[in-house]
Design a protein that fits this description.
heterodimer; A: mainly beta; 22-stranded antiparallel β-barrel; 5-stranded mixed sheet; 11 helices; globular; B: mainly alpha; 3-stranded antiparallel sheet; 47% helix; 5% strand
């Protein structure tokens, strides 16, 4: 177990600061202390031995073991073992260790006493990696951070490193897309700082900003930058939540920072090998509650002749046992409904995720390295879809001389995402077709008749042609998404004196991505190709991304009596470029050969964007008597993308941390620790796109063959009005917080409250299309986010063999729009599919609903009997959650650890906008479409426009179709909140059962299940988290995309 | 600490500080390169205006959501609901109302405004400048014919003048300006000056552009027949004097190809090919005079029981067996018509031939010689100009039958058949306006906007409103589009002012009338 720790006592602190977490030195000194102690005591030689471990079973090295009321003590060794010699075996043994809750165990005459220590919420002297990689003691920080260490990451493994944070860190809202284990992740810290854009925190890997661009093709989610990281390489993650924490990142700090540190071989001493295998299975979960009373067909008639085309409609006849239906080429089959569960079982396979990681590390006096090789293979629940990743990660640190240290990290990844599952935005996605297909359609028939064996053309099954037979897609479609990525940095640090250092660093994130995919020949919905060609298309996209950072940092500290000063200053030069090449071919000469050269019509484009930001920054910390800390930072950024007048922007911050439990004497004994913190910071967003100052033109790919010859066609390239005076938005945040530990650290409580004002937001304001453009970028927006985060840790039961720990966190956030335009009249804009309205929370949803009269009666058309749509859109709330959090219960019985996480998101509405319930409804699978089928008509309960009671008999199928066709959203507006049993894990370290072979130091097995169950939800037929949109401004919809999956698996960690 | 060591440290420290200072200075002075970094290496900062005009020309396509203008005028229909429901059932579907607004403004309008702005002072490109003015006027004609008052004087200036909420001009003032623009621009076109090279409608032929401009002027003038006869007469005279189209060779026609497919052809020959049918009225109308165009436009899959039975062996273009689909039914209730009509299923009705005449390579006509001759005949009948109305009528009918050759050899009508038909169907005194209106309707296929506008203006042909039981406008026709919903957010103040002065929400519904469409 790797753990950075500092001993608190004055005697050792200087050693710690000087030598940096050199366990050996500490051990030597402690050992000598214990020898000396031993020498002074009586010479009775009764020995007590034992082993001290963490709750997770890791041996704890350096634990102070003391007989209460005496000076008899010892320190645990590398394997957590200790031996003390005592006059008698009846004393109380006190185990204390920094970062852990102190435990007292009566010896009761035993010769062997083991102990398991539970972790304190945050160790008081814990060192936290803060912005720019500057290490600072947690107690000095005037803002909230959260550190997640490796133990939590590997044992509660999710497919991405970030997924592990879900529900566990206050203020951090994480949603995985409903697109499988390699889909992108939506991360929001403290709500939505801006009402346009993605509000995604900056990702920093080993001090290097990492591009987290999410790629997608149509509705196929190809994952984001996190796909490049092997979760098993991650040593720790730090979340910088607020502006003050992230202030040194200036223009990139708007949404906080997630800093990921991969292993770099500076912890374990000597040579070590770790092998980790993680295996999980994924099973599709059925959340549907469909009607199975009426089967395939339309207008109450089941298919009875060859080649029926009702395929996706379940508006057929009432199912009576023994009935038959005719499908495809005159096949008579039983007219029996198939449940979604059965259908999922038939169509989807069990997904499997396997990651093997082996790492070698060596470490000595002057440095060390950690080399890890990882291989990941994830097979999706859909046939032919899988993800492969190979990682080589090298981290090293070396003291070249007493003064110079060289360190670096290189993370190489090779990723191949094959046939990433199509999302439902694509009408032809198999996931969509499977979910919407008529309930009596047997999949075996679909598989048998998916294409004409001679021509290869899809066979008709539904008159709704875009819904392509899923077997046709699975067998003919391909999508290859490959990436090679090298992310790394090399730093040289000169320790000028023990208090002054200068560090220079060069870092780069580089990747090359190659993506190609087809639209297969023979789809029924394809446009016929001209004579001599077959239909279909093929596309190739190449991206090259590079971000280079050069930075320099100088640090100096000094103590003047009670006052300590710590100053850091530096500069950074950032250059980023993204080059994209795109080629496509439409229609082919040679069937089945998907190449550009085989195409009839070819398209090509090439795009290069470049940007640079130069920065200088500095930080100064003043401390008084180790209980009052004041901190100020400033960063100035210069942007290439802004006009010279707007180019330079300053980002300042001030923070204060006051440890009142140290400052005042005579505080109650139960108060172990208490800290107040306060901060103010201004940060920004690097959100002005390159070249956004000019309105460019573009030329179509192909010439137009006109009467005068073939000539170019062109015009404005963008529907957005260019604005040369754009500036980045700015965020000003005030944060206050308190950190309390009570009852000898058995209760820990952390609370933060914040007020975040975002001004100068660049609004892609909706313009009248009559202006010729659909939007205009303007710096007008103001919004405020307010909220609090709290977390509490309690250990209600703590005995030597059983402990129960509760970790709970809850966060509340509301974000409100303050200003949207230059004048007070500008109170509404639409950004993508949401409305931003002055004085209202962000992300308002407006939909047409059924019209009602003054008394609230539903209005139905007198002629048709259909629901009448409201004359204007109706507000149905916001699409963003206001409350979220999680509760983790951990039980440890003699080293067997059982942990369960329940998380929740509450307080939002959304509409089942595109797929899912919309489709289930219009295709007659939704239970809400049953009324009226028995009699063959529906009489809507309500009134006609003239006020008379509605008595019109509407035909069943058109009555229901009218809701989706006319966009009346009443049946679909649902609260998207939920309570989920997110994760259950069970772990044990088996090392104690092994013969005392010296070479195996740990053998830890954990079993994990993710997405175990939904405890409460309000949306029918689907997982409310099944959301496909990345942006906060299009969070209105959801899709019946990739079904939610439940994963079950194990993680085996072996240390040699 | 030893003294010399301290000195060494200080020296080292000084060196590092100097290095740091240099580095900091480098960083700060480096924004010199910023202008170069922020200059795109791949984008166009300017473009030949002729290429822009091409985009504007291509954009003006006769296709709404689901080819709705073709359904309003009862050329074709679909019995299907769900995503096809709307105009075929005379029902209001918001997304279908947004076309042409959402398509024309961001493309043809903004582009022609940009070209006019770019070339207005360029003496070397006066012909291009005037062609763009004509195209701009034509674009706005369709927009105002569809919506009534629309943004005109401030439209398309989002970038040039940063106007993002343009005011709505009255249709009357828009027509006043369109007439002026068409007149001035057509007059200013000068074949002696530089050709409009690189242009796709006429290959740069200035004479043809001039005739097109005057033909549009005739069209615009006649649009005012009910509301301002005097002005109509004035501009008809200018159009006649200026010189209109003289034959099918002058037709404003856009050739389509798979690279630039015909949207209407793509719609009808693609996904929905089994879902659109010729109306009974259309088939009966052509059959009544043994019109050979029936065989050019239509085909039928005789005896097809479902979509998959629409196979080559069943296909026929024989006018004698053509069967049009009656209006007022959905895909189930239509079954009640099968016996009477002599078909086995709805798939057995005649369709616009999506193998030949409505494919993605089918041409589109913006304005034809035939339409122009019919308007001329009407103007003569109304006494607004002089000439031989009967001759113009016959020219028009003949030209439209000959136009079928543009649809390919299988659609072309033999010369003898053309002559015979024209001879057999002369203009009859006392029945002129009806005959002219009906022929204009046939001659406008597949230009839905023009067919719809002329039907609203003249009342010909005398169609019967779609009797669909759940029609939202029982007994009435769709006479205008409702303003796009988006305007109520993005430009509400101007929108409300426009609605207010046009008779309020009551008149701004589908069955409301625009200014020139007087009762």
């Amino acid at each position: 177990m790797k753990r950075k720790y500092y001993l608190r006592t004055h005697f050792y602190s200087s050693f710690c600061k000087l030598l940096r977490e050199t366990k050996i030195a500490i051990l030597i000194i402690l050992a000598s202390v214990s020898i000396v102690s031993g020498a002074i005591t009586e010479f009775q030689q009764l020995a007590i031995t034992g082993r001290v471990t963490s709750l997770k079973g890791d041996p704890l090295t350096g634990v102070n073991v003391l007989i209460k009321g005496t000076t008899i003590g010892a320190i645990t060794d590398m394997n957590g073992r200790y031996t003390i010699n005592v006059p008698d075996r009846n004393g109380i043994i006190v185990f204390s260790f920094i970062g852990y809750v102190t435990q007292e165990v009566p010896a009761n005459g035993r010769s062997s006493v083991d102990a398991q220590l539970s972790e304190a919420l945050t160790s008081l002297n814990e060192v936290v990696v803060t912005a720019l990689g500057i290490k600072r003691e947690a107690k000095t920080l005037g803002y909230a951070t959260a550190v997640v260490n490796q133990g939590l990451l590997t044992e509660n493994r999710t497919a991405t490193a970030i997924g592990t944070l879900q529900g566990k860190v206050s203020g951090v809202n994480i949603t995985s897309f409903g697109t499988g284990p390699n889909g992108a992740t939506r991360i929001r810290i403290r709500g939505n700082s801006a009402f346009s854009g993605a509000n995604l925190p900056l990702l920093v890997i080993n001090g290097v900003p990492m591009d987290n661009t999410r790629f997608s093709e149509g509705s196929t989610d190809l994952g984001d930058g996190l796909n490049s990281i092997n979760p098993d390489d991650v040593e720790s993650m730090t979340v910088l939540k607020g502006a003050a924490a992230a202030a040194l990142y200036g223009s990139r700090a708007k949404d906080g920072v997630i800093m990921i540190t991969t292993r770099s071989g500076n912890v374990t001493k000597g040579f070590g090998v770790t092998y980790n295998v993680n295996y999980t299975t994924e099973t599709a979960i059925d959340y549907t509650d469909f009607q199975y009373e009426y089967g395939q067909g339309e207008r109450g008639i089941r298919p009875t002749t060859a080649w029926p085309t009702s395929g996706v409609w379940s508006f057929g006849e009432k199912i009576i046992p023994g009935m038959t239906q005719v499908l495809f080429n005159n096949e008579t089959v039983p007219y029996v409904a198939v449940t979604t569960k059965e259908r999922y079982k038939e169509f989807y396979r069990m997904g499997q995720n396997l990651t093997n990681t082996i790492s070698f590390s060596n470490s000595g006096e002057n440095g060390g390295f950690d080399l890890s090789i990882g291989n990941t293979k994830n097979t999706a629940i859909i046939e032919k879809s899988d993800f492969t990743r190979r990682n080589i990660t090298l981290g090293f640190t070396q003291n070249i001389s007493k003064w110079i240290n060289v360190s670096g990290n290189v993370n190489y990844s090779n990723e191949y995402y094959k046939n990433a599952p199509m999302g439902v935005g694509n009408q032809s996605a198999p996931v969509n077709t499977i979910a919407t297909m008529a309930n009596t359609m047997p999949l075996s028939m679909m598989e048998k008749y998916y294409q004409d064996p001679i021509t290869g053309k899809e066979l008709i099954w539904s008159r709704f042609l875009p819904r392509v037979n899923p077997y046709f897609i699975v067998n003919n479609w391909f999508d290859n998404n490959k990436r090679d990525r090298v992310l790394g940095n090399i730093a040289i640090k000169f320790n000028v004196t023990k208090d002054i250092y200068i560090q220079g660093r060069i870092a780069q994130d580089f990747y090359s991505r190659r993506h190609d995919y087809n639209s297969p020949t023979g789809r029924l919905d394809a446009q016929a190709a001209p004579a001599g060609y077959v239909d279909g298309s093929y596309n190739r996209i190449n991206n090259t991304f590079r971000e280079r950072n050069y930075d320099i940092l100088i640090g100096a500290k000094h103590k003047f009596g009670d006052i300590g000063v710590n100053i850091t200053a530096g500069g950074n030069q950032m250059f980023r470029s993204m080059e994209s090449e795109y080629q496509s071919a439409q229609d082919f000469i040679q069937p089945g050969l998907y190449t550009i050269m085989n195409g009839r019509q070819k398209t090509a484009s090439h795009d290069l964007t470049e940007r640079a930001v130069n920065s200088i920054y500095g930080a100064a910390e003043v401390s008084y008597k180790d209980y009052l800390f004041l901190n100020g930072t400033a960063r100035n950024d210069w942007f290439s993308t802004l006009s010279p007048a707007n180019r330079s922007i300053l980002y300042p911050s001030v923070t204060a941390s006051f440890i009142f439990s140290e400052a005042f004497q005579g505080l109650p004994k139960w108060l172990s620790f208490g800290k107040l913190r306060l901060s103010y910071a201004e940060v920004g967003d690097d959100n002005v796109g390159a070249y956004s100052n000019i309105q460019f033109y573009s030329i179509n790919s192909n010439l137009f063959a006109g009467p005068g010859g073939s000539v170019p066609v062109g015009g404005y390239s963008s529907g957005t009005i260019a604005n040369p005076n754009l500036r980045p938005l700015s965020v000003a945040e005030i944060e206050g917080g308190i950190d309390l530990r009570l009852f000898d650290n058995r209760v820990g409580f952390d609370f933060a409250i914040y007020h975040k004002l975002t001004t100068n937001q660049i609004v892609s304001a909706t313009t009248s299309q009559a202006s010729g453009f659909s939007s205009q970028l303007i710096n007008v927006g103001e919004s405020v986010s307010k909220g609090f985060e709290s977390s509490i840790q309690v250990s209600p039961v703590e005995t030597s063999s059983f402990t129960w720990t509760i970790n709970a966190n809850v966060s509340y956030n509301t974000s409100e729009v303050l200003k949207l335009g230059l004048s007070d009249k500008d109170t509404v804009i639409t950004v993508n599919s949401v409305y931003q309205i002055v004085g209202r929370p962000l992300g308002q949803l407006y939909y047409y609903m059924q019209k009602t009269d003054a008394d609230g009666n539903m209005i139905f058309d007198k002629n048709s009997g259909y629901a009448v749509r409201s004359s204007s859109r109706v507000n149905v709330g916001t699409c963003l959650p206001t409350w979220f959090g999680g509760i983790t219960n951990t039980f440890n019985y003699k080293g067997v650890i059982l942990s369960a996480l329940i998380d929740f998101k509450l307080g939002k509405n959304y509409v089942s906008n595109f797929g899912a319930n919309h489709d289930y409804w219009r295709h007659g699978k939704h239970k809400g479409t049953l009324p009226g089928r028995d009699v063959g008509y529906v009489i809507g309960k309500g009134v006609n426009p003239d006020g008379s009671v509605n008595q019109t008999q509407a035909q069943v199928q058109p009555y229901y179709e009218n809701f989706t066709g006319n966009g009346i959203e009443d049946p679909f507006v649902k609260n998207a909140g939920f309570w989920k049993l997110r994760q259950v894990s069970l772990g044990y370290d088996f090392v104690k059962f092994l013969p005392k072979l010296q070479f195996i130091k740990g053998l830890k097995l954990s079993i994990v299940s993710n997405n175990v169950a939904i405890l409460k939800k309000w949306v029918p037929n689907m997982d409310p988290e099944d959301i496909f949109t990345f942006d906060d401004t299009s969070l209105t919809g959801n899709v019946s995309g990739y079904p939610s999956t439940r994963s079950l698996g194990f993680n085996l960690n072996v240390k040699f | 600490m030893k003294k010399f060591k301290k000195a060494k440290i200080m020296k080292r420290f000084k060196n590092y500080m100097t290095g740091l200072l240099i580095a900091a200075l480098l960083i700060m002075s480096c924004d010199k390169d910023f202008d170069e970094i922020n200059t795109s290496k791949t984008a166009f900062v300017s473009l030949d205006p002729a290429f822009k005009l091409n985009r504007a020309i291509i954009n003006l396509m006769e296709m709404g959501s689901r080819v709705q203008q073709l359904q309003i005028t009862h050329w074709l229909t679909s019995p299907f609901g769900s995503s096809l429901a709307g105009v075929n059932y005379s029902q209001f579907v918001p997304s279908m109302q947004e076309f042409p607004w959402s398509s024309f403004y961001p493309s043809s309008v903004v582009t022609t405004v940009d070209i006019v702005n770019q070339t207005k002072d360029d003496a070397t490109r006066t012909n291009l400048y005037n062609a763009a003015r004509i195209w701009k006027a034509y674009t706005f004609m369709i927009l105002t014919d569809t919506y009534g008052d629309v943004p005109y004087s401030e439209a398309g200036k989002g970038y040039l003048e940063q106007i993002i909420k343009p005011v709505y001009d009255t249709q009357e003032s828009i027509y006043t300006d369109i007439l002026k623009e068409l007149d001035e621009a057509s007059a200013a076109l000068d074949p002696a000056k530089t050709k409009i090279s690189g242009e796709i409608l006429y290959g740069g032929d200035v004479t043809k552009w001039k005739r097109f401009g005057y033909s549009l002027l005739m069209r615009a003038a006649m649009r005012l027949s009910k509301v301002d006869a005097a002005k109509a007469k004035t501009y008809v005279a200018k159009a006649v004097a200026g010189g209109m189209m003289q034959s099918n060779a002058d037709n404003a026609k856009l050739l389509r190809n798979p690279e630039y497919p015909s949207p209407i052809g793509t719609e009808i020959s693609g996904n929905e090919k089994a879902n659109y049918y010729a109306t009974k009225y259309f088939v009966e109308f052509l059959k009544a005079t043994n019109d050979p165009r029936i065989g050019s436009w239509l085909h039928r899959y005789v005896g097809a029981a479902n979509a998959t039975q629409q196979t080559t062996s069943r296909r026929t273009k024989d006018p004698a067996v053509a069967k049009g689909m009656p209006l007022g039914y959905n895909d189930v209730t239509i079954a009640s018509t099968f016996t009477a009509e002599g078909v086995v299923s709805l798939y057995d009705y005649s369709q616009f031939d999506w193998l030949v005449v409505f494919t993605n390579s089918s041409p589109q006509w913006y304005c034809t010689y035939s339409q122009t001759q019919l308007l001329l005949a009407e103007a003569i009948v109304r006494g607004w100009t002089t000439g031989d109305a009967a001759a113009s009528y016959s020219n028009a009918v003949k030209a439209d039958l000959e136009r079928m050759a543009d649809l390919g050899t299988t659609a072309a009508i033999p010369g003898a058949a053309v002559t015979a038909y024209v001879a057999a169907n002369p203009l009859v005194v006392g029945n002129e306006l009806k005959q002219i209106g009906e022929q204009y309707w046939v001659a406008s296929i597949p230009n839905g906007f023009e067919g719809w506008s002329n039907f609203r203006r003249t009342g010909y042909p005398q169609l019967v409103p779609n009797p669909y039981p759940a029609s939202e406008i029982p007994g009435e026709f769709i006479r205008r589009h409702v303003y796009p919903d988006r305007e109520s957010v993005a430009n509400n103040e101007n929108l409300q002012a426009a609605i207010g002065r046009q008779g309020g929400a009551t008149n701004c519904k589908m069955n409301g009338r625009v200014w020139w469409d007087k009762l």
